[in-house]
Amino acid sequence: MVVPLMNLVARYRITDGHKFPKEGAFVFAPNHYSEIDPIVMGMVSWKLGRLPRFMAKASLFKLPVAGWLLTKSGQIPVQRGGSVRGSEPVKAARQLVERGQMVVVYPEGSLTRDPELWPMRGKTGAVRVALEHGIPIVPAAHWGTQAIMPRYSKKLHLFPRKTILVKIGDPIDLAQFRGRNLDPTTLNEATAVVMDAITALLEDLRDEAAPAKRWNPSEHDQKETGRFEA
Asked: In which domain of life is the source organism classified (predicted)?
């Protein structure tokens, strides 16, 4: 349903698509700066030969039409609140390993707060899934989605047709973290490695250097989730 429309809206220039695993379970970790990013990166996954899977809020699966579509397309319900919040993504990842599927996980957790749309401080969900289950984590960056839907905008700019640049990175070597207790220190260190890889890919696409210090919402009195302008 989405593919024909998104092909009309944008052309996708994918660099190093051969680094995208053609089979087996893995975590796909891109940058995040527009609410339409999941559709864009879903298109990229589709074009590279894999059906995209996302971890979505469990409440969405209860909606009459959207819930049916999410279930039929193989998306993964995750309870985001309560005492099970931290364990739910790891439980959901077991399905991926068993079925040999890929999942898109945004390490930033929400749209970047960085005013120039550089990747901000990451959260540990992506590396936790990878380390718990011994599956690769593949970084990626994209640039141009903001021309279709700016951050927190409610308007889509469908025409003229836009160009979205995408670059796939090498699977990240997390060997130094395997065998260690997955405590906050280990997970934060591994997440920093992932965010460095994503940022480097985006620097290549934008042909400019990212800020020396990664944006940290807590240092700017910003909420971790939601629309930070509100």
From this structure: Bacteria
Please state, in angstroms and rounded to a whole number, the distance separating the CA atoms of residues 206 and 105.
22
Q: Give the pair of three-digit tokens for residue 178.
A: 């395997």
Cβ distance 12 to 166 under 8 Å? yes
In angstroms, how far is CA 176 from the centroid of its own chain?
23
In a domain, 51, yes or no: yes
- What is the full DSSP assignment across 31-44? ---STTHHHHHHHH
pTM: 0.88
**At 75, which CATH number?**
3.40.1130.10
| Residue 203: domain span | 1-219
Instruction: Tell me the per-residue pLDDT of 5-48, one tens digit each, with 9 for 90 and over.
Output: 888 999 999 999 999 999 999 999 999 999 889 889 999 999 99
Secondary structure class of 17 (helix, strand, coil): helix
